[in-house]
């Protein structure tokens, strides 16, 4: 690429990270900053439109970096279409010739658009603090992190949490535990969050039409583009099936029959690509035997409820499954190792820490006479199995605490649980 043209693009792009826009603060910022002392490239992964590029702005602001104290490059810029491997050295020349601060941090957006970037990163990583984002059909963000395994730190960014959703809507939550009026407002906002999800642009611009647009971008650019054109229709069918069955068990074999793809490995490959795109997640039934874990059906979850309610088939009728999906994404956001438990009864989530299960969580919209025995028995069975003294039942709006078989059962609204977890 012509040196003068490259320099012009680099000069122009600095305006993007130098603007004074005020962004919704992200909980993940503190975690990203905590790794900067390790001098390893930090890769921010996540589903499209989860706010990865915006997080770069927030990190830059937190580091209090001024002009020429950092370099920002968006490799998705069409003006860099002729960028080649030897042009990486020109970037370093630009820093030197334009009198940038020595060994300044680099913010590299959509890095997968270039060839040989991983070798360049490996060469300069000891001199520069490097932040990387990227996700498209060429290389999904999970794959970018795997390329640099052992030589980088990967951090997953999810759509807005409920607290970030409230921040985006400028709703203050100080003293919410004591103020009943604030709690009433929070219940109303939580219902909106439950159905609309937390894709940042959707919330900030208050336009749910963007949910479908983003979903189709992921579907076509990250999934369908990777397979034979003849699979476009089956992939769409799998997509709708998964959205309409979140929180349910998934049998790959029965899914194969439903969409009429005889080759099981093709179906598994499609599901894996959905997972690599951070759109769907699949959790195993807990078993100390890895073989049995693999043999049992997995459960389906989606990264954001907005996709489920806007595109899934008649999903809004089942608030219980939406709540369960929301709890899953919150547990996932906090880095938990998640399984479901099923023997005589079922417990929605068990959390593993090291060699032990540390928590058992049941989710239901309401704990009432019809489901009380089933929900509690499933939780008690898990508590006994893993020798736990306390279990949690998360509901839409019920607060309670009681003991059964010397086990403490805490019942609380999900919105309270999320705000207390932060």
Task: Give an overview in words.
The chain has 422 residues and is an alpha/beta fold. It is 45% helix and 17% strand. It is built from 18 helices and 14 strands. It has helices at residues 3-18, 28-34, 52-62, 87-97, 117-124, 141-147, 162-168, 180-196, 200-205, 209-223, 232-243, 252-259, 264-276, 290-295, 305-311, 319-333, 372-385, 414-421; strands at 42-45, 71-74, 106-109, 130-133, 153-156, 249-250, 280-283, 298-302, 337-342, 346-353, 356-363, 390-395, 400-404, 407-413. It has a 6-stranded mixed β-sheet with strand order 9-10-11-12-14-13. The protein has a 5-stranded parallel β-sheet with strand order 2-3-4-1-5, sandwiched between helices. It has a 3-stranded antiparallel β-sheet with strand order 6-8-7. α1 (3-18) crosses α4 and α8 (180-196) packs across α15 (305-311). The longest helix has 17 residues, at 180-196. The radius of gyration is 23 Å and the shape is globular. The model has no long low-confidence stretch (mean pLDDT 92).
């Amino acid at each position: 690429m012509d040196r003068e043209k490259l320099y012009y693009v680099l000069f122009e792009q600095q305006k993007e990270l130098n603007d004074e826009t005020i962004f919704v603060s992200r909980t993940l910022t503190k975690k990203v900053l905590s790794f900067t002392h390790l001098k390893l490239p930090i890769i921010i992964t996540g589903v499209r439109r989860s706010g990865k590029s915006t997080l770069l702005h927030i990190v830059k602001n937190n580091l209090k970096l001024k002009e020429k104290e950092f370099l920002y490059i968006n490799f998705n810029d069409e003006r860099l279409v002729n960028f080649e491997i030897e042009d990486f050295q020109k970037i370093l020349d630009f820093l030197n010739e334009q009198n940038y601060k020595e060994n300044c941090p680099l913010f590299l957006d959509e890095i997968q658009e270039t060839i040989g970037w991983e070798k360049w990163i490996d060469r300069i990583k000891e001199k520069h603090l490097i932040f990387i984002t990227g996700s498209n059909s060429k290389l999904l963000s999970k794959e970018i992190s795997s390329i640099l395994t052992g030589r980088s730190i990967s951090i997953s960014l999810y759509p807005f949490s409920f607290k970030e959703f409230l921040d985006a809507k400028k709703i203050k939550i100080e003293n919410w535990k004591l103020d009943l009026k604030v709690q009433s407002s929070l219940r109303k906002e939580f219902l909106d969050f439950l159905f609309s999800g937390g894709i940042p642009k959707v919330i900030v611009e208050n336009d749910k039409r963007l949910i479908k647009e983003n979903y189709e971008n992921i579907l076509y650019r990250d999934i369908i583009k990777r397979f034979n054109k003849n699979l476009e229709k089956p992939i769409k069918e799998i997509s709708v099936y998964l959205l309409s069955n979140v929180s349910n068990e998934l049998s790959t074999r029965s899914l194969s029959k439903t969409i009429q793809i005889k080759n099981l490995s093709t179906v598994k490959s499609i599901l894996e690509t959905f997972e690599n795109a951070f759109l769907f997640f699949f959790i195993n039934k807990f078993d100390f035997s890895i073989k049995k874990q693999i043999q049992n059906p997995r459960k389906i979850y989606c990264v954001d409820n907005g996709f489920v309610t806007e595109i899934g088939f008649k999903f809004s009728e089942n608030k219980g499954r939406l709540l369960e999906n929301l709890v899953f994404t919150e547990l996932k956001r906090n880095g938990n190792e998640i399984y479901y438990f099923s023997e005589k009864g079922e417990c929605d989530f068990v959390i593993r820490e090291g060699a032990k299960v540390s928590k058992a969580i049941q989710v239901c919209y309401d704990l009432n006479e019809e489901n009380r025995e089933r929900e509690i028995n499933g939780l008690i069975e898990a508590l006994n199995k893993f020798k736990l003294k306390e279990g949690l039942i998360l509901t839409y709006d019920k607060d309670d605490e009681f003991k059964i078989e010397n086990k403490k059962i805490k019942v609380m609204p999900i919105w309270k649980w999320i705000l207390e977890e932060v």
